[in-house]
C-alpha cells in the first residue's frame, strides 16, 4: 500500500485551512468559501441543501432527485436490499433491476430514509442536568436527559426521529429532528459487476470506472412522497476546477481524540480488528466455494468485510506514520501548555487528559470481554442478534424511557422494530458458518478455561453449538418474533427456542461487562473529553468543525487532480476507459449489457472524478452539487490517501471519488433504457428513443 502522508487536523489548532472540514449546517464557514471560490452560500441555500440531502439509517447517505420521492444513492448502499429481494432464480445483484412501472417497485425489507428538518442547540439543558457530576452519576443522568429531550421532540410520532447529537466530544449538544421514511422501494440498480467494477483491487484507488448508483423511492400511506426539496440534474456535469459541495453523513472521524485514545487504537484495537477481519474474510471466501448459491447469499457480507479491512489498514498506516503522530503529540502538548499557563483553566481542565489516559488503560483490560461477550464478535449471527434483542426488550421496555439501554429508548424503537420484524431472508447454512467462526474466536481469545466460554460451549464444539441452535430455532419466522415481542418478558422466559435460550443464558454476563465499561471507561472519557473540548473553545474559539458522528454535514471543495509517485493524476476518467480497463475476468469483467453497448456509448463521456471535498465513510451515496445545487456527481469512495482522513486531512492528496452525473445519464439511456428514471431526472429527455439492453426487471 502506498505511504499515507497526512497533515494533522490538530487538536486545539487554529481554524481549519484549505478545503478541510465536515461542517454542521448551523456553523458553516460561508465567508471562507467566498474568500476562496467567490461564492457565499446563504442560510436559505444551506436549508435547501439540508432538506435535499438525506440519510440511510444503515450507514450511508443519499439525496432526493425528483419531486416524487425518488432517491439516489450508491449501489453498495442498497446492496442489502438488492440481495434480500433476490432469489436463486432471480439474482438482482448479478443481473440488475429496473422497475418499468411504479407497480413493479419492490419494497426493501429493512431500509429507512431520514430527512433532517430541524436543528436545536440543547447544550445548556444537558450541561445544567449534569452539572458537577462525574462517573456513573454523570453518565446515567446524561443518558436520561438525552432520552427525555428526544422523547419530547418525537412526541410519540413514528414518522419523526429525534437524536441528540454529541459534538466536539461533548462541548456542544444539538437536537436533530428528522422526518422518517420506512417504506422504501427499489427502482433501479445496475449489475454488481459494473457497480463494483475492479472489485477489491481497485477499492480506494483512482483512476476508477464504476457505476456505483441505485435509485429507490420513499412512500407514505402506499403513495410516493411529494418532495419539493430535491436536486435538479446538471446539464453538463462536473468540470475541472469547479466548486463542489458534498452533503452527507460522514460516519466517524477521530481528529480530536487525545493521544492516549489514539495510542489505544494504534497499538491495541486496530491490530486486533485487522486480524479478526482477515480471518473472517478467509472464512467467507471458503464458504463461497461451496457453490453458486452459497456465493450469492454471502456476497454482501464479504463486500462489507473486505471494504472494512482495506479501510482499517489505511487508518492504521496513518497512525503508524511517525511524522503524522508526532504532529498530533505536539498539538496536544501545545494546548495543555496553554491550559497550564492559566490558573483558572488549569484548575478546570488540566486533569482531563490524565483521566482519559487512565480510562484507556482500563479499556485494555476490558477489551476482550467487551468485544466478544457484549459487542458481538463472539456470538455473530443474524438469528442471535434477533434473540438478544427479544431477550433485552422483555427487560428494558417496561422501564421508564430514560432508564433503558439507549437502543431501546422511545426515539430508537421504530428503527429497532423495523430491523426486528424485517422479512429479509435468513440462510441457515450461512448462520451456522458465521456462528461457528465467532464461537471459535471466542474460545481462542478468552481461553477454553474462561467461565463464559465454559458456559456457552459446555461439552460441545463451536460447530455443534452453532448447528444445534440455528437448526432448532424458529426465529427466522417473523410471526414467531412478533409473538415473542408482544408477549414480553413472560413469553421470552417461557420460550424453548434454543437461540432465545442461548441469548438469555449469556445476557447477565454481557450486561455486566457493558455496565463496567459504561461506568468505569465510557463515562470518564465522555466527561473529560467534554472538558478538553471546552478548553479548546476557551483558547481557540468555536470556529472549528466537530468530529463526524454520522449526522448531516456539508463540505466544500473543487474538482482537482493530484500528484502520486511523482506523476499527475488527472481528475476525470472517461467511459471509454472502462472498456480499456476490462480484462474479461472478475473483478475486471464487464456485464453483458455493457459489452453489447460499447459501440453506442459516447466514449468521451466523463465516468468518475475526484474532488478536494473532505469526506469519510458514511458519505457513500452523498450527492455532489454545484453552486446552483444541481447534481454533478455521486460520492462512492475516497482514494487510498484519504483513508488517513479519520485522523487528519491533507488537501494535496486526500480526494473524494464520485460517479459523474453524465455517466449516469449515458448509462440509463443507452445501456439500460430506463426511460422512467430518465424522465424524472431530466424531464423531456426520453423524447429521443434510447438504445437499450435492460437488466432483469
TrEMBL record:
Using the record, list the residue span of the signal peptide; answer none if the entry has no such feature: 1-18
Q: Which UniProt keywords are listed?
A: Aminopeptidase, Hydrolase, Protease, Serine protease, Signal
Q: Which InterPro entries does the record match to this protein?
A: Pep_S46, Peptidase_S1_PA, Peptidase_S1_PA_chymotrypsin
UniProt xrefs under Pfam families: Peptidase_S46
Domain of life the protein comes from: Bacteria
Q: What's its job?
A: Catalyzes the removal of dipeptides from the N-terminus of oligopeptides.
- Output this protein's name: Dipeptidyl-peptidase
Amino acid at each position: 500500500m502506498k505511504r499515507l502522508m497526512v497533515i494533522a487536523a490538530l487538536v486545539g489548532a487554529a481554524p481549519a485551512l484549505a478545503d478541510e472540514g465536515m461542517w454542521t449546517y448551523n456553523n458553516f464557514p460561508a465567508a471562507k468559501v467566498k474568500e476562496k471560490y467567490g461564492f457565499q452560500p446563504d442560510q436559505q441555500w444551506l436549508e435547501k441543501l439540508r432538506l435535499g440531502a438525506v440519510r440511510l439509517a444503515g450507514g450511508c447517505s443519499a439525496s432526493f432527485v425528483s419531486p416524487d420521492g425518488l432517491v439516489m444513492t450508491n449501489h453498495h448502499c442498497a446492496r442489502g436490499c438488492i440481495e434480500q429481494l433476490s432469489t436463486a432464480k432471480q439474482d438482482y445483484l448479478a443481473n440488475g433491476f429496473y422497475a418499468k412501472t411504479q407497480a413493479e417497485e419492490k419494497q426493501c425489507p429493512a431500509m429507512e430514509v431520514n430527512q433532517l428538518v430541524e436543528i436545536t442547540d440543547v447544550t445548556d439543558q444537558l450541561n445544567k442536568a449534569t452539572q458537577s457530576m462525574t462517573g456513573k452519576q454523570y453518565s446515567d443522568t446524561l443518558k436520561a436527559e438525552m432520552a427525555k429531550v428526544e422523547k419530547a421532540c418525537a412526541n410519540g410520532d413514528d414518522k419523526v426521529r429525534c437524536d441528540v447529537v454529541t459534538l466536539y466530544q461533548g462541548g456542544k449538544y444539538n437536537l436533530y429532528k428528522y422526518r422518517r421514511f420506512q417504506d422504501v422501494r427499489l427502482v433501479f440498480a445496475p449489475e454488481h459487476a459494473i457497480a463494483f467494477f475492479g472489485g477489491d483491487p481497485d477499492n480506494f484507488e483512482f483512476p476508477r470506472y464504476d457505476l456505483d448508483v441505485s435509485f429507490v423511492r420513499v412512500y407514505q400511506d402506499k403513495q410516493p412522497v411529494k418532495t419539493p426539496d430535491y436536486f435538479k440534474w446538471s446539464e453538463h456535469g462536473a468540470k475541472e476546477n469547479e466548486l463542489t459541495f458534498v452533503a452527507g453523513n460522514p460516519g466517524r472521524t477521530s481528529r480530536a481524540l487525545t493521544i492516549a485514545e489514539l495510542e489505544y487504537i494504534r497499538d491495541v484495537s486496530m491490530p486486533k480488528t485487522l486480524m479478526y477481519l482477515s480471518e473472517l474474510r478467509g472464512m467467507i471466501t471458503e464458504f463461497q466455494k461451496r457453490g453458486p448459491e452459497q456465493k450469492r447469499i454471502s456476497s454482501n457480507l464479504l463486500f462489507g468485510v473486505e471494504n472494512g479491512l482495506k479501510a482499517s489498514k489505511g487508518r492504521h498506516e496513518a497512525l503508524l506514520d511517525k511524522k503524522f503522530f508526532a504532529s498530533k503529540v505536539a498539538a496536544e502538548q501545545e494546548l495543555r501548555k496553554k491550559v497550564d499557563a492559566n490558573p483558572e483553566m488549569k484548575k478546570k481542565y488540566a486533569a482531563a487528559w490524565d483521566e482519559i489516559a487512565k480510562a484507556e488503560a482500563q479499556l485494555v483490560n476490558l477489551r476482550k470481554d467487551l468485544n466478544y461477550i457484549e459487542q458481538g464478535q463472539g456470538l455473530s449471527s443474524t438469528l442471535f442478534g434477533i434473540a438478544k434483542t427479544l431477550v433485552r426488550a422483555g427487560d428494558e421496555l417496561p422501564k421508564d424511557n430514560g432508564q433503558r439501554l439507549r437502543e431501546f429508548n422511545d426515539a430508537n424503537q421504530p428503527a429497532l422494530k423495523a430491523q426486528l420484524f424485517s422479512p429479509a431472508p435468513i440462510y441457515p447454512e450461512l448462520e451456522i458458518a458465521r456462528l461457528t467462526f465467532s464461537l471459535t474466536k471466542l474460545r481462542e481469545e478468552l481461553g477454553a478455561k474462561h467461565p463464559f466460554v465454559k458456559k456457552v460451549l459446555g461439552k460441545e464444539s463451536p460447530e455443534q453449538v452453532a448447528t444445534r441452535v440455528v437448526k432448532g430455532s424458529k426465529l427466522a419466522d417473523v410471526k414467531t418474533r412478533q409473538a415473542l415481542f408482544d408477549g414480553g418478558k413472560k413469553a421470552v422466559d417461557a420460550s424453548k427456542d434454543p437461540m432465545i435460550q442461548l441469548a438469555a443464558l449469556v445476557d447477565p454476563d454481557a450486561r455486566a461487562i457493558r455496565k463496567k465499561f459504561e461506568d468505569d471507561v465510557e463515562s470518564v472519557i465522555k466527561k473529560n473529553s467534554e472538558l478538553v473540548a471546552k478548553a479548546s473553545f476557551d483558547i481557540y474559539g468555536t470556529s472549528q468543525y466537530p468530529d463526524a458522528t454520522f449526522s448531516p454535514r456539508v463540505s466544500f471543495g473543487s474538482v482537482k487532480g493530484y500528484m502520486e509517485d511523482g506523476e499527475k493524476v488527472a481528475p476525470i476518467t472517461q467511459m471509454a476507459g472502462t472498456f480499456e480497463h476490462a480484462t474479461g475476468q472478475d473483478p475486471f469483467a464487464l456485464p453483458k449489457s455493457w459489452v453489447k453497448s460499447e459501440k453506442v456509448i459516447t466514449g468521451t463521456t466523463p465516468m468518475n472524478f475526484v474532488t478536494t471535498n473532505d469526506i469519510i465513510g458514511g458519505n457513500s451515496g452523498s450527492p455532489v452539487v454545484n453552486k446552483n445545487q444541481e447534481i454533478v456527481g455521486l460520492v462512492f469512495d475516497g482514494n487510498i490517501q484519504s483513508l488517513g482522513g479519520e485522523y487528519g486531512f491533507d488537501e494535496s492528496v486526500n480526494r473524494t471519488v464520485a460517479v459523474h452525473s453524465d455517466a449516469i445519464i449515458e448509462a440509463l439511456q443507452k445501456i439500460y433504457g430506463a426511460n422512467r428514471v430518465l424522465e424524472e431526472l431530466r424531464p423531456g429527455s426520453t423524447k429521443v428513443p434510447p438504445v437499450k439492453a435492460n437488466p432483469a426487471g
